[in-house]
Amino acid sequence: xxxxxxxxxxxxxxxxxxxxxxxxxxxxxxxxxxxxxxxxxxxxxxxxxxxxxxxxxxxxxxxxxxxxxxxxxxxxxxxxxxxxxxxxxxxxxxxxxxxxxxxxxxxxxxxxxxxxxxxxxxxxxxxxxxxxxxxxxxxxxxxxxxxxxxxxxxxxxxxxxxxxxxxxxxxxxxxxxxxxxxxxxxxxxxxxxxxxxxxxxxxxxxxxxxxxxxxxxxxxxxxxxxxxxxxxxxxxxxxxxxxxxxxxxxxxxxxxxxxxxxxxxxxxxxxxxxxxxxxxxxxxxxxxxxxxxxxxxxxxxxxxxxxxxxxxxxxxxxxxxxxxxxxxxxxxxxxxxxxxxxxxxxxxxxxxxxxxxxxxxxxxxxxxxxxxxxxxxxxxxxxxxxxxxxxxxxxxxxxxxxxxxxxxxxxxxxxxxxxxxxxxxxxxxxxxxxxxxxxxxxxxxxxxxxxxxxxxxxxxxxxxxxxxxxxxxxxxxxxxxxxxxxxxxxxxxxxxxxx
Length: 499
Hints:
Blueprint: E1 10-19, E2 22-32, E3 37-41, H1 48-55, E4 66-69, E5 72-74, H2 79-84, E6 87-90, H3 102-107, H4 121-135, H5 150-162, E7 168-172, H6 180-195, E8 199-203, H7 207-213, E9 216-221, E10 224-230, H8 236-244, E11 262-271, E12 275-283, E13 287-291, H9 298-305, E14 313-318, E15 321-322, H10 328-334, E16 336-339, H11 343-347, H12 354-359, E17 367-368, E18 371-372, H13 374-387, H14 404-416, E19 422-426, H15 434-449, E20 453-457, H16 461-467, E21 470-475, E22 478-483, H17 490-497
Parallel strand pairs: 3-8, 3-9, 6-7, 7-8, 13-20, 13-21, 16-19, 19-20
Antiparallel strand pairs: 1-2, 1-4, 4-5, 9-10, 11-12, 11-14, 14-15, 17-18, 21-22
Keywords: ATP-binding, Cell membrane, Membrane, Nucleotide-binding, Repeat, Sugar transport, Translocase, Transport
Family: Belongs to the ABC transporter superfamily.
Domain ABC transporter: 10-247, 252-499
């Protein structure tokens, strides 16, 4: 029995898991009540995803584990048992099929079975439309998923999880790519699910959401249970302290950079339909923050600076010389590096090794006699892993074995190894927890101190306010305003962005 005599829907005891000699979970206990919204909190690498995969049957825990679910007791779950029992997961990477339609993505499990059968597309459309209506969202269910934005794909993943008789739904960073209004709507959906008796386990690094929506909070740190806490009376700073064991004192880092030489100058850069007449300068050692709502044109601007998109008009100067990149290869050779907001599919090659991912943009630097040198690659990787404090097992391990925060450090290291003049960081903390975020911004600060010019793009205003020297606000593809963190408040920028 648990709170107020209510028997848990899910109860785990003595959960242990080891990967490559690293203890991912250490004697963890965890429970969820029927209809409860429960937050599972912890830094990347704390064991949250491993615990979810044990519950859903992806991983088998070590001997001695006890899993009680919906009145049944197991030593381990299987994917079939978990799904048949109404356990659904919305993974952070969405696990969708871009070439398939919205309807096929949402309802494909309804046509999966042991024997071949004809596909009832009309029924699939009905199921998909019903699920989307439950979310209050209108999408063309016959359109291929690849036609939709990341935010809309997230909604499709949520709709897919709601198909069927779910009793327990895990949401792993479900709001990472959503706007504030979409996030607010999702929170209402979660409350509706809870009211109907569906238990929801909410994993989010946006602590304000956690405190708004959850009843209780389970905190993991380094694979061990820190404790289970009522959310009532909890503060963001207290949750951060529980997750990390540290206090984080945020302060404005902005400094005067006007005397430094210009590294990149952008003059009246335009790409119709995406951004218009954008002008700015980034100087040596300066961090320029660019913020705004989704759809403001920030990523399209970054891709134009990196040679992935071609601007219609305007000029870009690098070290005072005009440049026109026909591809990202030209940009890399010129000294421009771009860290994509979509780390999982664009920033890193998940099945490949840590070493190969880090070295892939620097192959010319590790050649010896015209061939790639394993020794040079090993030294290159060792240097950047040490410099950025990346926690890895072996260089040959797949990068997918790392936590989100450590994957992001590898992604940053990949570009630093090219020795860039300008580093563009596009939403570098998406899916990264508060402790790892602090570490990433410490890296950014040190890179700026070393003379690197940095463009920091984020839709989270506090990130640019505390970590940039100047902040450009973009709205609907245009320059909406400039802010100096030394002479304005965080609330002033937020008011302008979210107005």
